[in-house]
Amino acid sequence: MNNNKFLLTTGAIALAVTSIFYSCSKDINDRTSNLPALNPASTDANAGTWKPVLLQSSSEITVAAPAPTTTPDYIAQLNEIKATQAELTDEEKRIVKYWGAGGILRWNEILRELVAKHNLPPYQNDDGTYPFPSANNPLAYPLFPFSNPPYAARAYAYVSAAQYDALVAAWHYKYLYNRPAPDKVDESINRLIPGSDLPSYPSEDAVIAGAATEMLKLLFPGDQDFIQAMAEEHKKSRIIAGANVRSELEAGEALGKAVAQKFVARARGDYAGAAAGNAASWKKLEDDCIARGEEPWYSLELPKRPPMLPGFGRVKPFLFDSLTVIAIRPGPPPSVTSAKMQEEVKEVNKFITKPTREQTRIVHYWADGVGTYTPPGHWDAIAAEDFIKKDFSEVRWARNMALINMALMDAAIVCWDTKYFYFNPRPTQLDPSIKTLTGIPNFPAYISGHSTFSGAAATILGHIIPERAKAYSDMAAEASISRVYGGIHYRSDCAVGLTTGNKVGEYAIQRARTDGAE
Amino acid sequence: MHHHPNLPAAGRKINRLCLLTLTLFFITTAEINAQTETDAIMMNKTQFCAGFVYGYSSWDHYWEGTLKRNNLNLGTVSAKSLAFMANYGITNKLNVMVSAPQIWTKASAGTLRGMEGLQDFSLHVKWKAHTLQTGKNKLSFFLVGGFSTPISNYVVDHLPLSIGLGTTNLTGRGIVDYFRNHFFATASAAFVYRSNVTIDRTSYYDTELHSSQEIKMPHVANYLFRTGYRGKYLIAEAMIGNNTTLGGFDMTRNNMPFPSNRMNATQVGLGIKYTLPVHTNLSFLAGASHTIAGRNMGQATSYNGGIFYAFYFRKQPGKNDNNLSNQP
Predict the structure, then answer these.
(1) Cβ contact, residue pair A370, B125, below 8 Å
(2) Which of residues 26-65 of B touch A (CB under 8 A)?
(3) What is the pLDDT of residue B314?
(4) What is the ipTM, given to two decimal places?
């Protein structure tokens, strides 16, 4: 009897031990760390005629003609590839594999990483006020930027749109100059990643890296060592892979930077710099709300933190003008004293009192709060993982990411405009017994940012990949309701946020239909 | 097989103190008090005892990396636990013990909701491998193997209010115990192999971005030293213990804690265990501990109290039926 028990026990332990060692390799399964090389189904040869976002035309920035492939200069560049390829290190092979998956993909991931790293609210001063990060002193605490959702949405949009415009220009020059890829000039060049008949000058990869680095000087000025190292690695991957000679990289990088400078100039004048407001403007929001007979929003943080970017609603959108922002703004939320609002507060309280495990999972799946790449980053990740399966060319990747991210930024603008127009309190302010399943964002409730972002992203994504439209719309609905489950939004915040986001997404579809890519 | 000079007179039954408490390797609580898988006490063959231990642990300061701070948006973070524990003597030298706690967490300030649920089932097998004796000095060596795994699908990634870290653990521990005239000193060291864990979101940033729901969890080393009085009915001890996470990363400024943080803690504690002389099936324990140093952990102060009941299933002629075995 005892022996049997002992055997059973030891047997169970042995089984458990074995299963752990078999099932739990300590290496985690990262969905994009081991991707095959990008092998576009089409070169999108007409992309030089697609409609840019800011450039007047694809030839606005001049790219000088490349030297003929018979010149000593070019031959020397081929020899650089050959010498590099003569003895490849494991690190060089890793670089080729990593960047071979696609430049737009990797820079989007890098940007998401930077956003997650910097998405941390500053710690308060001793006197209970809060310090603001300074772009002029990004490495001093609080680090610049605090990449909260509006900041992140804008960053994703600028980087994506700059890369798109730069690639449209690059495609123009590629087919203008028609320089063949190194392995087509010299058959002894060993191309380590798939090739095509896409002309090689200027390098699309260097265009992508150049546009990103130039844009990120503005957006993440404290991370330049990392960003520059990634750009160098990206360019180097092309030489190691035998995919570009140096002059193609140099021309591409210069083009990418020049195009991005136009976006940097736009960003400096898009009013985002004034979005934080000041004590007087914060007070005015409160007073105006009281004057309307409503209860104003108050920060639920201790000490009370100034509202997040109250002026972001005035930032210049990409897909429409500022008057449209006001036109899209939804009508008011239920008055805080109305029966409807009391009913909605009750519903929230019910959800947080007894959340099911599935509801909690949904809350955390979509929370995208502090220390994450924010909801816009989450939608970028969803998009990117679907684009990987589509074998898009780099220029189509860029175009699609630009459409999504311009929609996400404009969704942030419309949402923030609405939030600060109504300045509506969070559920916990109206009913302090509402304890939340995730952190309460430090800005007014109406309309839900997650819902607006998700409505916009799902709409344009459903246009880009129609067979997934239903899936995207289901995801958006789940992201939206997750905020009610979590206790941080009323149902009306979410429902109206979703439809408002859909409207923003429609503007992106309008652009998609007319940009020449469809 | 199980004779030694410290045994009291025959004819009295006293259950061996089968007292366990929880070790919670996370930011909310960390107790090191009175765990039978870490002490030198053995149950006799076929003895079974079971009981409940209630624990309360709280902190209002924590280490964000190495920076000690408070958080007005958390106030005091507390965890209550009620654990079922049982211990069975397979032989006099081989014991098996199990436990399963229910845990409730709470933050006194801010808006975050606490969590509750069944945490991890654990099973430890303790083997008294060798004893050396010279006069009144006695030195015993033990080996302990442990296994624990979550028994509910609790949320891992909501620290500091998660009820656990969700890892499946394998523990190997060595114990050396010195005993003389009711004085004892016990030192032990353990390595805890921890499985990776899966969280509800699809991406996270630790020191870089991961597109994964899986977190690579670093392993843990645990060291314990306890000393005090070990008598027939009473054990009173003081202890110091340390958990060191073998890897992991520091929380960044004003960030939330994460399961794979480098969570270290050094704690001191006091504990007593008492068996009722008039009814030796019943025993009680009480203990307290305090964190004196840490990293990515709350500076927890913990209290616990428990009650256990012993059952004697077997009485064979010719066997020593004295069950008091506080002495090794």
Answers:
(1) no
(2) 45-46
(3) 62
(4) 0.93
Q: Does B182 contact A at CB distance below 8 Å? A: no
Answer whether B203 sits within 8 Å of A372, measured CB to CB: yes
The ranges of chain A with pLDDT < 50 are 1-2, 6, 22, 24
Centroid of chain to Cα A163: 13
For A30, which of B157, B200, B210 is closest by C-beta distance?
Answer: B210
Q: How far apart, in Å, are the Cα atoms of A80 and each of A195, A235, A241, A246? A: 19, 13, 12, 8
Structural domains in chain B, CATH included, are 36-312 (2.40.160.40)
Flag whether residue B157 sits within 8 Å of chain A, measured between CB atoms.
yes
DSSP string, A153-207: HHHHHHHHHHHHHHHHHHHHHHHHH-PPPHHHH-TTS---S---S---SS-HHHH
Residues in chain B within 8 Å Cβ distance of A116 = 203-205, 209
pTM: 0.92
* CA distance to partner chain B, nearest, from residue A2 (Å): 6
For chain B positions 266-325, those within 8 Å of chain A (CB to CB) are none
Collapsing DSSP states into helix, strand and coil, what is residue B100?
Answer: strand
The pLDDT assigned to B1 comes to: 34
Give me the residues of chain B with pLDDT under 50, please.
Answer: 1-35, 316-328
Give B229→chain A minimum CA distance, Å. Answer: 32
Alpha-carbon distance of B25 to B257, in angstroms, equals 13
Query: What single-letter DSSP state applies at residue A313?
Result: G
3-state secondary structure A14-40: HHHHHHHHHHCCCCCCCCCCCCCCCCC
Q: For residue A446, what pLDDT is reported?
A: 97
Q: Are A436 and A352 in contact (CB under 8 A)?
A: yes
Question: Interhelix angle for A246-268 vs A72-86, to 10°?
Answer: 90
User: Does an H or E element contain B308, and which?
Assistant: strand B301-312
Contact B200 A121 (CB under 8 A): no
How far, in Å, CA of A164 to CA of A263, rounded? Answer: 11
Tokens of residue A346, six digits: 């009750």
Closest Cα to residue A347, out of A486, A477, A455?
A486
Name which of A59, A108, A72, A83 is nearest A216 in CA terms. A108
Which of B153, B168, B258 shows the shortest C-beta gap to A20?
B168
The predicted pLDDT at position A449 comes to: 98
Topology (CATH level 3) of domain A47-268: Vanadium-containing Chloroperoxidase; domain 2 (1.10.606)
Q: Which residues pair with B225 in a beta bridge?
A: B187, B240
CB-based contact A113 B96, cutoff 8 Å: no
Please identify, in words, the CATH class of the domain defined by A279-514.
mainly alpha
Closest residue in A to B210 (Cα–Cα): A30
Residue B312 confidence (pLDDT): 79
Tell me the residues of chain B between 235 and 254 that have a Cβ less than 8 Å away from chain A. 252-254
Domain boundaries, chain A: 47-268, 279-514
* Residue B112 burial by Cβ neighbours in a 10 Å radius (0-12, 13-18, 19+): buried
Residues in chain A closer than 8 A to B72 (CB atoms): 302-303
Per-residue pLDDT, A26: 78
